[in-house]
Amino acid sequence: MRAWPSPPYATPWRQWVELTSRRTWHRHTSAVVCSAPAQTLKRRHGRITGVKPPAFAYSAPERLDDALRLLADLGSDGKVLAGGQSLVPMLNMRLVAPAHLVDINRLAELATVEADQRGVRVGALARHSDVERSAAAAEALPLLRQALRQVAHPVIRNRGTAVGSIAHADPSAELPAVLSLVGGEVTAGSSSRTRTIAAADLFLGPLETSLQPGEMLLSAYFPALPPGTRTAFVEVTRRHGDYAVCGVAVTLTRDDAGVVTQSRAAYVSMSDTPLVIDLAEALVGGRASDADVDAAGRLATDRTQPDGDIHATAEYRRHLAGVLTVRALRAAA
Ligand SMILES: Cc1cc2nc3c(=O)[nH]c(=O)nc-3n(C[C@H](O)[C@H](O)[C@H](O)COP(=O)(O)OP(=O)(O)OC[C@H]3O[C@@H](n4cnc5c(N)ncnc54)[C@H](O)[C@@H]3O)c2cc1C
Question: What is the pLDDT of residues 147-198, one digit of tens each?
């Protein structure tokens, strides 16, 4: 794979953060298309020339075995194409330049959402909307639907995959935070083995996971939460459907007497990888009174150390962490 473009952006992640803030962002998502309207190109060149992304080879295997074999042969030159809702913009912005795309959209066996009282397993080709609409998944883990309703717009959720979002490892994305909060795991496959990776070992940095060249994610598993647990996901975005400036998922577990026995929160856009904070010291042993919930908000402000960027200052993000923690706990209580 070729190197990232050189400065003015310090890292590809910084470039992604800045470019996705511009009004042109939506134009970058419109599949692999010409860099100017077809009529303009015809007028200029007499034919349609040029595409936005760097050149790449493309395969769309129809069997999982073939896909894994191909990925093994390609090693770090290969990249999985799932819903394309993050990869295509990155190609169009020339933030990535894989030699070969392996399109997994024909692997129908991976388009699964399986749920029971123990948890939800999402196959690599299940779209966000498949998971969002699954009544069984919403019953097993309501937090999944609560989070997915915050992901982009319905049209993007119809195409983008839940597992693709996890593989993409964007610290502004909702699903990596949910997977981390519930202690979930993913299953990675290659031509030689299948292995399970806990969420805590998967996310290494912005857009970086512990997946090895030649591996792809086959599924993600979200375990159900203990009985008596309620959840909420709240966030602040600059425009409807944008990535969150700050987002918070909370769990609040009570015993039969209504006493809080555990509570945790996961934060979006607050660190390089999903940040999970235990809120026990503010809430456990009480009944989630206003005073306890406010104490949890202060705990969140104290324990978060976000960066500032083009979207928000670090101080504003920390302020939001506190306010949104309170708001999420009140919604869950
Ligand atoms: C306008 C817009 C707004 C958005 N807003 C949000 C938002 O608010 N929150 C949010 O979470 N997301 C948002 N997204 C991103 C969206 O959720 C994507 O669907 C998701 O990030 C990636 O899923 P995908 O299937 O499209 O993956 P792709 O774009 O196909 O791939 C993304 C990356 O993951 C890798 N990958 C994908 N599947 C696998 C696999 N099975 N194994 C290994 N690697 C894999 C690819 O190689 C690539 O590196 C937005 C997208 C757009 C266009």
Answer: 999 999 999 999 999 999 999 999 999 999 999 999 999 999 999 999 999 9
Give the residue whose CA is nearest to atom 46 of ligand 1.
80
pTM: 0.90
* Every domain of the chain and the residues it spans: 12-103, 108-223, 229-332
Closest residue to atom 4 of ligand 1, CA basis:
152
Confidence category of residue 34, pLDDT binned at 50, 70, 90: very low
Give the atom of ligand 1 at the shortest distance from the alpha carbon of 25. Answer: 1
- Distance, CA 279 to ligand 1 centroid (Å)? 30
Domain 12-103: which CATH class?
alpha beta
C-alpha 168 to ligand 1 mean position (Å): 6
Best CA proximity match to 53, nearest among 6, 97, 9, 2: 97
Architecture, CATH, for domain 229-332: 2-Layer Sandwich (3.30)
Q: Find the length of the chain.
A: 333
